[in-house]
Amino acid sequence: MTEMPTGPRTDHKDLATVTYVHGAGPATDEEYTPPIPRPLGGRTRATDRAAVVESARRVLEGTVTPAPAEVEVTEVDLDAFDDRPLIPAWAKTPEGWAMYSGVVYRSRLRAYRRWVRRQRTDRGHLAQFRRGARRVQDWVVGFEGIQTQALAHQAHIAAKEARAAARAARYTPALMKTKKEVAVREADRTQTVAMQAVNAHKQAKKYRRKLRALRAGAAYGPPMAAISSGYITAGGLGATAGALATFAGGAFAGRQVVVEETDWSADWRSLGDGDPMTAPMLDEVFRRAKVIGSDETLHMVQMPMLDARGAWSAVIDLPPGIPAKKAMRAISEIASALGVEDAQVSMTKTKGKGARSGRLEMYVAKELPFTEGAEPGPLLALEAAANFWGRIAIGPDVRGLPISISVVERSGLIGGEPGAGKSASGNVILLAAALDPRVILWLADGKGGGDLEPFEELCEWFEGDADPEAFYEMLKAAVADMKARYGLLKKLGKRKVTEELANKYPLLRQKLLWVDELMFYTTDDEYGKKITKLLRNLVSRGRAAGIVTFCATQKPGSDVVDTSLRDLLSIRWALRCTTPEASDTILGKGAAAAGYSAKTIEPEMRGAGLLWAEGSNPVLVRADYYTDDQVELLIKRAYDLREAAGTLPEGPKTLADQLRDKGEADADVLAVLVEVFNAYDQAAKEEDANGEVDWLPGTVLIDALKAAGLDITPEKLARLVVREDAEKKKRTWEDSPSALNGYPLTAVLRAVQTKYGL
What we know:
Blueprint: E1 16-18, H1 49-61, E2 74-76, H2 94-118, H3 125-141, H4 144-171, H5 177-253, H6 279-288, E3 299-306, E4 312-317, H7 324-329, H8 331-338, E5 345-349, E6 359-364, E7 391-396, E8 402-406, E9 411-415, H9 422-434, E10 440-445, E11 461-463, H10 468-492, H11 499-504, E12 511-516, H12 518-522, H13 528-541, E13 547-553, H14 563-566, E14 571-575, H15 580-587, E15 608-612, E16 619-622, H16 628-645, H17 655-660, H18 665-687, E17 695-697, H19 698-707, H20 714-720, E18 742-744, H21 745-756
Parallel strand pairs: 9-13, 9-14, 10-11, 10-12, 12-13
Antiparallel strand pairs: 1-2, 3-4, 4-6, 5-6, 7-8, 14-15, 15-16, 17-18
Helix pairs in contact: 3-5, 4-5, 6-8, 10-13, 18-21
């Protein structure tokens, strides 16, 4: 700073009066004494650096007061400040340089932090390099492949036509000269066209390879050359420099973010295209499905979100005045707008607190549900006995959540087309009942195909021959058992069977009556109406008596199952059906119109069905699947449990046992006679396989009766077992020297049939 002349100067407008205040330092405890002003006229050596900085600040702010009269004032020319007139003197001090360098450091630090944050976005250098590499690769591939593919298709079609024409020309008889010539010319023409198409395809492939090779050389040659030359020149350091240069070039190529849509179908997005579910998408979907108007929108109670299975779920409120059933009826249209199958979309009304008429819970599976392999059923892991009085595990729903039902005081109907999985689905209930040793099993197989045969050894009554008459007898016995149960309940003063009563009184044990292929029984000309009447009696009255009835059929229409019986079956399970009407015959009239139709179940979803057991809405469930080996294993376990509990059913009673059950003296006599004939017959067969005994002397029978404690005379025996004249003929017996009077087996059996109907 040059020294300026002192004294006032008022004749130069470009000059300004500047006063430097020196001695501005920290205050002390002593009384403040103003510093002695020192004239400015050259470089001043600051005695206090803080005073210099403070003086400069006050000068710049224009807050310096005029100097006292006795202070010498120096006029300074601002344009004459060294060679840099715009840089004040305080900036050249150490404090000034420190302040300036701090600003630069902080600005560089902020810039570095911004760069780090940017790396996580699509404008980061790594993202730029990826875009650049993709763009370079797209440029290398080019569009020649489209033309090559089209020419390949043309060549394939031309070759196919040429082969067909050659075959026609070859097999056209030579006697048909005109047609033969036409066929040969056509074969030549198509062969020429095919050869031209094949050549064009080959040329297109060659042209594509050539262009791709040139573009690949232009795109990948420089980076490879840079890396190779760097490695040769400077080793690893040079290769690293070449790689960084390549990275910089790729990042430069991808510096621009693609904001425009490259998909030609970008005007419409769907879940089927892999797009995420959003609120605007659902608005557009419901508009296209004609559920809401073009100017209406949905209210998102729960925004669309993905679960662990990759499926989308949302809770929505329809606009005021639109009920939920309108959307549920349009499930096919909604699935079409979403770009998925009908079975992938599940919509139910919300339940519990916060439920509304127009509120829907929407669930869209990522893929068609229930097409993957079924998980092992929970009964396989069951170590103890099952509890048929509790809840029965059925299988998972579309969300993978386990579904269970209670069959206490309930009855059920399972229906679906052939091959829909009725037998496998019914196993979840049958096996649960079998594994509870307290449950009595009565099974009837109207199909006669052996699906229920593995359970036969556990059943107290089994009808596996598809015999309507035998099933009718079973139902009569079931009704009689129901009356006996109600008689005991009346004596006990109880209204219905409970688990405690069933455990205490064997007569009140739970009974499962399972009827497979009900259609075969109810459509019988002779017994159909009788069977329907008895079933209706059992279903309507047997629930409180501990009798659970389940029926399975392929077509549960009114001609198969009377509506008066079908409406009493409270649990409905509709497997895949061919028509919505068939689904309604199971779930009830109007279910398909409300959005619950088993027709939407795809054939690949075997074992899946709409289960309407508890709640106001059917649920799509797939039954747990048990293989044949697993069924045999569980039945063996059920047999062991029943054997240990002493509840194994008794085998078929012999004729003698049935007679003794009558509790009459004549029946006891006939029982002994039957046993004597059986004993002699078995002994004869042991000596000779073809031997049999159909007649015994009266003395032998009298001795056997006396040995059994029955004192009966020959006259009384003759009155009980009436013989025809031809049967009274005497016969020889073993070593007897003369013929003896006796009784044939036919006469004994005739007496049993006549007196007791056995």
